[in-house]
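Build the 3D complex.
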Amino acid sequence: MNEVCFRTRHLPNPASLETYRSIGGYETLKRLVTEKVPAAEIINQVKLSGLRGRGGAGFPTGLKWSFMPRYYDGPKYVICNTDEGEPGTFKDRDIIRYNPHQVIEGMAIAAYAMGARVGYNYIHGEIWAEYLAFERALDEARAAGFLGEHLFGTDFSFDIYAHHGYGAYICGEETALIESIEGKKGQPRFKPPFPASYGLYGRPTNVNNTESYASIPYILQYGGQAFQDLGVPGSGGTKIFSVSGHVEKPGNYEIGMGTPFPKLLELAGGVWKGRKLKAVIPGGSSTAVVPGEIMMQCTMDYDSIAKVGGSSLGAGSVIVMDETTDMVQVLNRLSYFYYEESCGQCTPCREGTGWLWRVVRRIAQGKGRPEDLDLLLDVSNNISGRTICALGDAAATPVISFIKHFRPEFEYYIQHGRSMVTG
Amino acid sequence: MPQIEIDGIPVEVEHGISIIEAADKLGIPIPRFCYHKKLSVAANCRMCLVQVEKFAKPLPACATPVSDGMKIFTRSKAAVEAQKSVMEFLLINHPLDCPICDQGGECDLQDLAVAYGSTKSRYTEEKRVVVNKNIGPLIATDMTRCIQCTRCVRFLKEVGGLMELGMINRTEHAEITAYIGKSVESELSGNIIDLCPVGALTSKPFRYSARGWELERRPAIAPHDGLGSHIEVHVKNGRVMRVVPREKESINECWLSDRDRFSYEGVNSPDRLTKPLLRRGDQWVETDWQSALEFAASRIKDTIARHGPDQIGMLISPHSTMEEGFLLKKIAKGIGCGNIDHRLRRSDYRLDGNFQGTPWLGCNLTDINQLDRILLIGSILRNEHPLLAHRFRCAVKYNEAELSLINPLGQDFLAPVAHKVITSPDGMVEMLLQVLKAVSTLERRLLCLCLPPALTRVMETVEVSETARAIAASLAGYGKTYDLISPRVGVFLGNLAQHHPRYAELYTLAEAIASLNGAVFGVLSETNNRVGLNLARAMPRRGALNARTMLEQPRKTYVLFNVEPEFDCHNGKMAADAMAAAECVIALTSYKSEALRDADVLLPIAPFTETSGTYTSMEGRVQSFAAANRPLGECRPGWKVLRVLGNLLGLEGFDYESSEQVKDEVFEGEAPSKVVWNRLNNNLRVLFDIEIRPPSMKLQRIGDIPLYQTDGTVRRAPSLQAAGKNCIGYVSMNGKDIQSAGLKPGTLVRVSQGGESVELPLRQDDRLASGCARVPLGPSTARLGDLFGEIRVEAIR
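Done.
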């Protein structure tokens, strides 16, 4: 456990530069920069590691890096996305709380590999203490010569600015995040062009999740293969799973990819109060809910969650629900979240999320109608895949999956005006 | 070039265009709300979703570039299903208030809802309500109807130049709004009415007055600035209900300035003169045309008999048609009078007789967008020619042009200005001289033009400032970011320069600077038809009196053609005095006016909507139009009145039966384009001598013409008069001058000129040249003196 991103967590004062250096921190950056290791070699190692974007979409990080134009006359940027705002996610907060320097080093290596001189870390608006902690870490790194002009006496210069957001979920979408840094209203841009060709201030920009960057120093220190070997084929490395909900010991658990779900549940102390497992949302609220018995057959990696669970690993935000959970009320809450967080830019999501929530709320209030479930599915399908960004899909997925797996509970509400579970 | 297939039609299209552009070219309709060909792509309405082979999801046609081999289906099951679903979403929160919505009948949402909507809504929850915004007197809002397409936001930011509207809040709370407590003040704001695909933004003056299908739509030409914008006049029951742009890419694109859009209100003003009036003592008495015209003719004959024709002065509005100008000139010529002029606000006529032709823009309007280096002298361009300012902004924004300005006052150009000089009117002459000297000493310039020795001598007496050097370098192609070997350069004189007391010198220097740079040299046409009236020769005969000297040396009889003397002349006080002292004033006018209090007869003539005629724009485009509406009351088109007056004066050749016949005579039977080609020429015969004047100690007035004070029609449009951009009734000076004069900004001060004085609030404007007081023309200041004369500003004791 805790082999990569949480490497310092068991040590005293884990966030300090001193602690980070005691485990060999910044040595990798120094080696790469002073030995002038070619960018292509670094990107190859990242590809070899099997690292996939930890923010939820799971896009191969090495491939993303290779999209950045190598010969570009002008500034390029690397951006770290610490804007985790989805219900169930709380891993990036702990990374910058316990091991900020590994993120900084990861970003510096990325900057070196992609030819950027400036980086930004966009930190979610609701975590102020962690933002301050990250600023302190930046100060430490600058003072120690790991950020700034002419690092290690070479011509490589790099600095990072921490940017504290205002708490909008949509700013976790990389192009909305870019707009927000630019001082505009956080709204996703349509793609193409992708940030690698037209990003921050119109310049080539690479955006990765905090956990992705934090994995980079390990990959470059021990080699891509070593990282891959921590996981399973198709899902390299370790992954932090943020387990919340009805468990005895909620929290972040960094374990190898491919660990069976029952093992993770055991680490989290099992379902609380000795109750039975009803359902699990495996990757944050935007991923499909999986009934407990199916989830128990999954291993925690991209392929298994997709193929066996019919959901996705997302950001590894595991929401556990016990047998007493009223699934209609859960969906009511989730739909309200997406209704509130839609950026309001494009039609299906702006109008559709409100529609979905109002119908679900009506059902939850005991005023449902027989045609409501088909309407919900139809509206969800009309949102999915027709919006600028994935928030529309994220809002539709819970609705579709909750009705798919727990339709009788919804029908019971509609027929009886009350919950099948809680009465 | 990529080969694509849209709905089975194979077609070769330009590389890089979007699917919607390709479909538009083919005439294949794709529904859309947010997409507009002149604005950036937002892709937010999702109405234009189409199916593309090999893509699982429908793609927005507006934001998807074509690629070779692409197969696009706009009407397939998947495409139509996606479009219908978007329509359903758009309608769930849209109020069902079409019967009371002004957009009804010309609403994109309504139209597309017929094609893509369902007859019954599946949405049974509560609907959204959005609080209305007051964004000024021109645009009415019903924000609950808004579908958040952001066309208005993008227009104001990208074309208007200032982001006066924006979208706040997330989710369905998202709403379009102005800054807190602000309205939309862009001089191009009315275009967002046209752009709005629903009834959220509608015309306030037009509100609740007619339905689109009740209106007769007549093409016309805009009558205010020098562009000659194409407009459509919408008429119901003989009343002009509104004016909208007609698309003309090379002139106004698809836009229209607010002045051209809302000035029709003036045409409907209660001030309209509908019957001939004769003065009887202190009373106006209605009369018939015959008596009125006979009276006018007899007074003209009487003046000729008693004082000679030279005692008649004729002033014609520079907004008149070519036919009107030509006929008035013909009458003047017929009675042996040389005193006729349309250049009413000009004070410096020293170049008369020195022009090789008719001054004009020197290039096409569309060429402005392509310029690399621009020197604009004496112009408040956004007030003078709002849509031309847009073209200059385009040059700066999209062509990376460097713009240099020389003015006595500052203005927000809404685009980066490379070099800005704000100096007194005399300082402008010296600054140009410095620029000329700097240009002529630049190594890269070939001295292709031999400057006359007198000019060279006076050039030697000035020292070149850093700014002048920078402007010269910029014009020569040296750039702030990179140099151009062969820049396309334009040097232009604005309206303010034409009113300048030393216009002759500004003109000479501008021409010399332009020549040395191989630049386009142009004169912005002060009004819609300044070029045309020059071509029609509505100007004094050699040696006769011009608009200024006609007032300086008062005449016994004046003929005024749509002129309100104190508002339209260079020296309001002098004009008013001359009218008061005259034996007889014959006024052909569309409006009853206090400014015509000294007239003896008022002959009602048609405003631009009720007459046929011809305007020639600043780029030399000759545009004829038919009357959009029938004349109000007994009012008659100006050309007809002049024709009869000619007859009554016993003059030969006044037998026209149509304005086309007059036009043929204006152009001497030639094709207008040929005449224009031959006669438009900005070169001087000889360069004028330049004088260096010591700095004056006296306070000089800068009398600019505000956006909505240009002519009688605009001055009578209530909505424009109420608009935020109508800045009148103040005096401004820069902070230092205010301090040294012992005045306090924000207080009322006494402003005196030529024996008249008014009390005006004093504003501090540090972008005003020192030694100057800006007193714009307006109702309270019209009777002051020379627009650029000496003026006194004192505290009120």
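The interface with chain A takes residues 41, 43-47, 49, 56-58, 60, 63, 65, 82, 85-86, 88-90, 92-93, 122-123, 125-126, 128, 147-148, 166-174 of chain B (CB under 8 Å).
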